[in-house]
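The instructor's notes for this session suggest beginning with a concrete chain rather than abstract definitions. Hand out the sequence below and ask the class to guess, before any prediction is shown, which regions might be ordered.
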Amino acid sequence: MSDIVHYLHRGPAALITLNRPDKRNALSRALIAALLDAFKRAADDPTARCVILTGNGPAFCAGMDLDELRGTLGADAHQVWDDAKKLATLYDFIYTLPKPTIAAVNGAAVAGGAGLVTVCDLAVSVPEAKFGYPEVRRGLVAAMVMPHLLRHVGERMARWLLLTGELIDGLTALRAGLINQITMPETLLETADAWACAVAEGGPQALAQTKKLLYRCSLQSLSVEELARGSAEPRLTEECRHGLTAFFEKKPAPWSCHR
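After discussion, reveal the predicted structure:
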């Protein structure tokens, strides 16, 4: 397993840890690939009855890797599309995994990091964690997370998060239905362990069938490809280029009321 993703057995669970603490566990191309490999390993691991996903360091996942994102300015459409498709594939694999998944949110879960939380079946968070989707402030669109966010928090809250780009704390996320529980940092993995033991009491086939039926009940109208395209296309626009350039230069975006 890659150094940027750790895979351990913890009771009945496979514990998958994002391990780029110096980059706030940002989703680089390598990390996305390593995460997909880790979840595929968990799917085939007979000793893993469920999966716990967490982050090393102060953040759970701060979203897309900024250095790689900077490199997409002026990139050809193929590269942008390929990046979006691979992240969409990861989300879909986690969401449809036959085994229950638990997000143990140890810190900020923003943009793509918040997306990882929404595709897990259950989520427990520390109080100080921040959640949000600031993509529109950079001229981007959080297309891939929309169906998952809508299922958890409803349309009114989803519109507020996606259109304002504001971040919310753990308590607000709990009240909105984005997470299931808040706990202190020292008991975060203990809580996830307890949930892992609870779901492991279910029959493996019964759990898989329950997840399959839940997926069919909440089947989204857009395909993985369509959602990836919705995320990729804005990256090729002048608006996005201006927004990301302003972000990297620590300046307000051209359309910001704080110019």
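Then share the key points. The first helix runs from residue 29 to 44. The chain has one domain: 5-205.
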